[in-house]
Amino acid sequence: MKKLLLICLLANLFMWADAQFIAVNYLQKDSFTNHLEALKDNYGMNKIIPPVLETECLTALQFYPELKTVNIEFRFGKASTTMSSRPTLSSLLKNRNKRLYIVTINQDGASKLGLKWNELSFNQTVGWIGHELGHILHYTQKTNGGILWMGYKYSFARYKRKMERFTDQLAIGHNLGFALYDGTEYTLNCSNAKKSYKNNAKIFYLKPNEILQKSYTRDSVVANYRKTKFSRKSNVMACLK
Question: What is the largest CA-CA distance in the chain?
């Protein structure tokens, strides 16, 4: 089944690419389990991770070196979607370097409408955790007041869409584009998630073809955290690179 899904995903990828080369980075769990102790040493600092998700979380974290010393707790609990992330309210009273961020994984699925985390493949799970880490990276760039303002704006659909698509692109910029594509493609076209869940994903997040397109052009853009958008690098920056 997994081989068939991979063949389907690769076929879609090459059809979109139209003879242009895109590197596919399909993450296999065994490749990382064999180096789990090294991952713990390098990326496990200030992290609390359920043992059942240790390899997935540490693998995603290695793509975000900026979060190496950030306090993050991964936990199972109730969430409005399959995964969510935010700083604790109490840590918003502290210096930003001392904040604690919580990534909540909904063990029972997305409010009974979406997916259970454990029906995703390793590659897909890493991609989705990578999306949540993108949120946390965004939070680290904000003041405490700025985070509260973001939370208020998130209640409006227009900003929610802007923020979620920006966060998808952060994951793409951290080399998790294909993992994110894999999970999105599965959710929309292969999973048994409810229609309302899929429609929500189509409205607020990047679609599979957009993820591929932005993966191909990711080196030509730079994140603007203040404006929650990506901008094209100047010709001068491109030449210097």
Answer: 52
Tokens of 59: 């693998």
Residue 239 token pair: 């030449």
- Are the C-beta atoms of 120 and 184 separated by less than 8 Å? no
Query: Among 167, 156, 159, 180, which residue's Cα sits nearest to residue 133?
Result: 167
Structure tokens at 76: 């199972």
Distance separating alpha carbons of residues 45 and 65, to the nearest angstrom: 12
C-alpha angle 68-69-74 in degrees, rounded to nearest 5: 80
What are the φ and ψ backbone dihedral angles of 113, each rounded to 5 degrees? Answer: -110, -30
Cα separations (Å) of 104 from 15, 79, 133, 170? 36, 7, 12, 19
| Distance from chain centroid for Cα 132 | 5
pTM: 0.86
As a whole number of Å, the end-to-end CA separation of the chain is: 42
In angstroms and rounded to an integer, the radius of gyration of the C-alpha atoms of the chain is 17
The two three-digit tokens of residue 39, written as one number: 């991952």
For residue 163, the SS3 value is helix
pLDDT tens-digit series, residues 143-193: 999 999 999 999 999 999 999 999 999 999 999 999 999 999 999 999 888
> For residues 43 and 60, what is the distance between their CA atoms, to the nearest angstrom?
10
Report whether 106 contacts 117 (CB < 8 A).
yes
Triad 73, 230, 137: Cα angle to 5°: 15
